[in-house]
Write a structure and sequence with these properties.
about 30% helix; single chain; alpha/beta; six-stranded parallel beta sheet; 7 helices; elongated
């Protein structure tokens, strides 16, 4: 059985590790190529796009893929819709592997918003020293003159490209992060508001606990809706069980 994993996430790598030990399973992981030095999973790896849903469907047919697993980031919306259409067109079973979103705890001061642009609009009423943990993409939303007096600490794996905020310091780092480390970032940089996407998982969650302890507001960008009718699981182990069931 040939399984294609649309990966680039911790869950995608873990799934590739598990499937590599499954008898009779050939694993190919596809990475978008947005990170300069990605952590490569075991098995075969391809890097780059497919050319939309039609290109992905053609790849599925050409490489005799028996199962497609969408383990991309919760905010990588386009590829998930392309995967749904491609799987339907190529008649390949599709599974979505999505880590659960974060849930607010007692003492959290979360401000849910629908987009990065909305996050930028609410910042003036919350603080001026911003810990921006939404990655290097989409920084243009915070580059407008209305935020010209705000200071941003931008954390990302790779250096961002303009347009980005006028007053900005870049922290190049990759999770998982620790609670002690996040506490020190908030303290050392005198952060008074945090902006994040609801990416879920434990690797980047300590910033939420650190913000709660410090009494800071957290602007949380909600996840975009995914395609309808796609079976979903929350863990790589559940995805392995799905693959086993397909193999009969």
């Amino acid at each position: 059985m040939h399984v294609l994993i649309l990966g680039g996430t911790t869950e995608g790598r873990r799934l590739a590790e598990l499937l590599a030990d499954e008898p009779g399973v050939r694993v190919t992981s596809s990475l978008a190529g947005r990170v300069a030095a990605p952590r490569l999973p075991p098995g075969e790896v391809r890097v780059g796009g497919f050319g939309g849903a039609a290109g992905l469907a053609a790849w599925l047919r050409q490489h005799h893929v028996d199962a497609l697993i969408d383990a991309t980031h919760p905010f990588a919306g386009t590829i998930s819709f392309n995967a749904a259409k491609a799987a339907a067109d190529a008649h390949v079973p599709l599974l979505a592997l999505r880590r659960p979103g974060w849930v607010a705890s007692e003492g959290d001061d979360w401000r849910p918003v629908g987009s990065l642009e909305e996050a930028a609009r609410v910042l003036p009423g919350l603080g001026r020293r911003v810990f921006l943990t939404t990655g290097r993409m989409g920084l243009a939303a915070f580059a407008g003159p209305e935020l010209g007096t705000h200071w941003f600490l931008v954390r990302s794996v790779d250096a961002p490209e303009p347009p980005f905020p006028a007053r900005m310091e870049v922290l190049l780092d990759r999770g998982p992060f620790t609670l002690d480390g996040e506490r020190e970032i908030l303290r050392a940089h005198r952060v008074d508001v945090v902006v994040t996407k609801d990416s879920g998982g434990s690797a980047t969650a300590p910033k939420l606990a650190a913000a709660r302890e410090a009494g800071l507001p957290v602007v949380v960008v909600r996840r975009p809706a995914g395609p309808d009718g796609v079976t979903g699981v929350a863990t790589p182990e559940e995805a392995v069980a799905w693959v086993r069931a397909l193999g009969g």
